[in-house]
From TrEMBL:
InterPro entries: DUF413. NCBIfam families: PRK11027.1-2 (NF008252). Residues 105-119 have a biased composition (Acidic residues). Belongs to the MaoP family. Residues 94-119 are annotated as: Disordered. Pfam families: DUF413 (PF04219). This is Macrodomain Ori protein.
Length: 119
């Protein structure tokens, strides 16, 4: 991760509210993505909230990405946008039964040939 100008956080970043078992164990992030979040998450939160000021071109670009996620280019920016979407977005809930009901006029039993008197 030394090829980036982003500052690493002073401590590891965790989100015990949304991801209590860790980022990778949630099934939403890979081990590499978890590592990025843990190393740089504190800095990214600080930049996003305005507590930290950007000190280099990558951090300034990240501030543009915060307001327009389509501009994300680096792995750190993409992972952070994924984290924001999963942590702050709506959780999808899937049920086993659907809302639509079968049409009552349709008969789903197998059609058996009927014998008529002519046979």
């Amino acid at each position: 991760m030394s090829e980036t100008e982003f500052r690493q956080g002073k401590k590891r970043f965790y989100d015990n509210k949304k991801f209590p078992r860790g980022f990778a164990k949630s099934g939403d992030f890979t081990l590499a993505e978890e590592n990025i979040l843990m190393l740089y998450g504190e800095t990214l939160v600080g930049l996003e909230s305005g507590v930290l000021a950007p000190t280099n071109s990558e951090e300034q670009h990240f501030m543009q990405v915060v307001s327009n996620p389509d501009l994300a280019e680096t792995k750190i920016e993409k992972v952070w946008m994924k984290y924001v979407r999963l942590a702050r977005g709506r959780k999808r809930f899937h049920t086993l039964n659907g809302r639509s009901r079968p049409d009552a006029s349709e008969d789903y039993s197998e059609d058996e040939p009927t014998l008529t008197e002519e046979d």
